[in-house]
Amino acid sequence: MTQRKRLSGSRQPIPPGTQEDEEDPTFTQPSTSQVQRGLEKFTPAQVDQKTAEVVQYFLVKDQKKIPIRRADLVKHVVKDYRNIYPEIMKKASRTFDQVFGLKLVEIDTKTHVYILINKLETAEDASRINSPTNPKMGLLFAILSVIFMKGGVVRENLIWNTLKKLRVDAGVKHEEFGDLKKLVTDEFVRQRYLEYVRIPHTEPPEHEFRWGQRADLEVSKAKILEFMGELHEQDPQTWSQQYREAHCTPDSTQASTSSQR
Fold it and tell me: Tell me: the pLDDT tens digits for 21-57?
């Protein structure tokens, strides 16, 4: 039997797409003075129209929970308005806030990746994932619950075995989910609900799951703990480590809003 070794070292999430996670080298964030000069070239109506196009682009992508890269936004939507990019994003962020009740969040400050989250359903409140009616969200909630209760990192075999006990077999095409492994390791990863990480120095290759950046922002760990308490008929404080984590004050690692970028 092949011996599997797991050595300490940095682990890198498997990128959803080689090109997709690279920054656009041709774009540099304009300075305040560049923005001011750029605004002189456009009428307020033109700026408002371009802002509306950016808002529409985000809303369409958000239907499938696809994170949006600044490079794609500039290339496909902003285009000739790139010199006033910060102003457009500030106006778009205000529109999401005041019109749609959404918050525009930059979840990756290195490659500049954005998502929309519901302001009324932040990580401290009940969200649609915490009370899932969509079967996919129910499946995701179950996976996130296992990861959280196991300390934040679990080997993928544990996830597949747990789902099999719930009569969702990764080896069988599911009527509702289709290819389960593709859904979990591709779609949920691209949406940034999960991280699917190669464990270094394992042969054959092994992987583990962690919470993704979107899950940290949208999913309440306190709600997961309440659910587990009801399921096992125990006080949530029975799991002392998880209880402390679920009720701690969010720290500075939370993603900053794009209005600050």
Answer: 455 666 788 889 999 998 999 999 999 999 999 999 9
Q: What is the rounded CA–CA span in Å between residue 112 and residue 258?
A: 9
Higher-confidence residue of 127 and 220: namely 220
Kindly list the strands in the beta sheet with 194-198, ordered across the sheet, starting from the edge strand earlier in the chain: 154-155, 207-211, 194-198
261 vs 259: CA distance, rounded Å: 5
Backbone angles phi, psi at 38, to 5 degrees: -65, -35
Helices vs. strands in the chain: H and E counts, helices first: 11, 6
Among 59, 40, 51, residue whose Cα is nearest residue 94 = 51
Strand partners for 209 = 154, 196
Which of 142, 155, 140, 160 has the alpha carbon at shortest distance from 197? 155
Q: Contact 242/150 with Cβ under 8 angstroms?
A: no
Crossing angle of helices 135-149 and 156-165, in 10° steps, is: 130
| Helix ranges (DSSP H) in the chain | 32-39, 44-62, 70-73, 85-95, 135-149, 156-165, 180-182, 188-190, 213-218, 221-232, 240-246
| Nearest CA-CA partner of 19 in 69, 73, 64 | 69
Q: What is the pLDDT of residues 103-123, one digit of tens each?
A: 899 988 888 999 998 765 544
pTM of this structure: 0.64
CA–CA distance from 202 to each of 8, 13, 199, 207, 231 (Å)? 12, 15, 6, 9, 35
The torsion defined by the Cα of 151, 153, 155 and 159, in degrees rounded to 10, comes to: 70
Q: What is the DSSP letter of 4?
A: P
Task: Please give the angle made by the CA atoms of 131, 234 and 133, to the nearest 5 degrees.
Answer: 10
User: Which residue type sits at 23?
Assistant: E
